[in-house]
Amino acid sequence: MNSKPVFNNRFEGYAYSYPHKHSYRRMEPVSLEQLWASEKKDALFLYIHLPFCEMRCGFCNLFTIANPQETIVDAYLNTLQQQAETIRRVIKPESFAQIAVGGGTPTFLEMPQLEKLFSIMRALGAEPKDIPASFEMSPKTINPQKLKFLEENGVDRVSIGIQSFLDGETKALGRPQKNKEVEEALNLIRQYRFNTLNLDLIYGTYGQTPAAWQYSLEQAVSFHPEEIFIYPLYVRALTGINKLDQNAQDLREDLYLLAKKFLTSAGYEQISMRLFRLKTVRSSKAALSYSCQEDGMIGLGAGARSYTKHLHYSSEYAVARGNIKHIINEYIAKNSSDFEFVDYGIELPVEEQKRRFVIKSILHASALDTRRYESLYGNKLLSDFPQLGLLLENQLAVMDESQKMHLTSQGTDYSDAIGPWLYSPYIKELIQTFELK
Ligand code: SF4
To answer: CA angle at residue 317 from 437 to 335, to 5 degrees?
Structure first.
């Protein structure tokens, strides 16, 4: 067995969604009503985007701005409310299966703003006390009052970006933070009853040694988080660290393998190339079954994406501060009726729907269900995607007795190569010609 002929580079890109947002384009307006008319609406995912942070990290290309004026945040929430009202009236969601609030840093909101956010969610019919509800935060933006509010209002998963437990590394990442503040924040979070605490860490920072990475992993595990996400550093266009020395030695492969060994021996199960979860974790809520391959997603806010079977859409996307501000201002200026039409996104012909099903399934421990694929699309998986045979031949994937195709442990290590390798030529072309602003 030798995987090298299949993939020379493990770190091609992160296929966290398909198609990538860089394949979205301006399009003829489509009515929201028509778009959702034949969609299943009984197990929807609600994603709410708050594009505000207390600082702009050097490695981050997410749709967010640092330190906006409070009036902008208030105006943004007013528009969010109008968008939610339009969605309720036009899409008529039947029930939500999951909620995620991300950004940005949602805990950037002050208490009255948080209260308003939850009332918007509830008015839309999404009750965080009844379904899995996740909330992103940063060490500097939390306090006891906010955490108590989130706990009492049903948030059961909190996710906090730490990146590193070494001050020098976070400085090199363009995210100056004091480790003392990080530890205080984690100790504070642990005083509340959130079912799952997730910590995000980054590896491959310039100058990071295996010993330094091991130190951050040990520190992370000492807080017993139920989940740890490890992100390889990708230096992305228009971000702060883009300017740094890119000829530094790339240790990401060694650091990834070190983390995998360390976390699995510390009682964590590997769910994907990035996600490690304590084997003992169980959800505190009886969740409706939501399938990210098949069920729809409703996105609220500028930068939030929404998915129907045939079309993915959002507001425009940018990375540079001035351009993000412009898109946020355009969003704020909208009224309810403006949300009745969609004019930016990508249509998914059946060929792309199939690819999406394959990519979203195979990179996750839940695996690629070939029988489900065949019942949805009427074709044999391996005749539609003969290249998957290469993964089987090279023991990067196996087929189990229930005809589910799983990445092997070594295959999981190549997830960031396998995902982009499965993109269609059409989507690759769109990504390559996207004009990043
Ligand atoms: S990494 Fe997180 S805290 Fe930093 S700018 Fe991006 S969204 Fe904000």
So the answer is: 125
Distance 118 CA to ligand 1 centre (A): 22
- Cβ atoms within 10 A of the Cβ of 109, count? 24
- Residue 99's identity, in one-letter code, is I
Within a 10 A sphere around the Cβ of 405, how many other Cβ atoms? Answer: 22
pLDDT at 42: 93
CA torsion 278-284-286-288 (nearest 10°) is -60
Say what the pLDDT of residue 5 is.
56
Pocket test for ligand 1, best of 138, 201, 202, 239 (most atoms within 8 A of CB): 138
pLDDT averaged over 10-residue windows placed end to end, the chain, 437 residues = 68 89 95 95 96 91 92 97 97 96 96 98 97 96 98 97 92 86 96 96 91 97 97 83 67 96 97 92 65 84 95 90 92 95 96 96 91 96 96 96 95 96 96 89
- Spatial separation of the C-alpha atoms in residues 432 and 23, rounded to whole Å: 8
Q: What is the largest CA-CA distance in the chain?
A: 60
Degrees, nearest 5: CA angle 81-87-93: 120
Residues with CB under 6 A from ligand 1: 53, 56-57, 60, 62, 64, 103-105, 138, 161
Number of C-beta neighbours around residue 419 at 10 A: 22
Instruction: Compute φ and ψ for 378, nearest 5 degrees.
Output: 75, 0
Cα of 50 vs centre of ligand 1, distance in Å, is: 11
> What is the model's pTM?
0.94
Counting from 1 in the atom list of ligand 1, the atom nearest the Cα of 175 is 4
pLDDT at 313: 97
Report d(CA 301, CA 323) in Å as an integer: 16
Protein residue closest via CA to atom 5 of ligand 1: 56
Closest protein CA for atom 7 of ligand 1: 104
The residue whose CA has the least distance to atom 2 of ligand 1 is 104
The alpha carbon of 236 and the centre of ligand 1 are apart by a number of angstroms equal to 14
| Per-residue pLDDT at 241 | 72
Q: Which residue has the tokens 């983390």?
A: 259
Tokens 């694929």 sit on residue? 373
Domains defined for the chain, CATH in brackets: 21-278 (3.20.20.70), 350-432 (1.10.10.920)
* Closest listed residue to residue 150, CA positions, set 189, 122, 186: 189
Strands 404-407 and 368-369: antiparallel
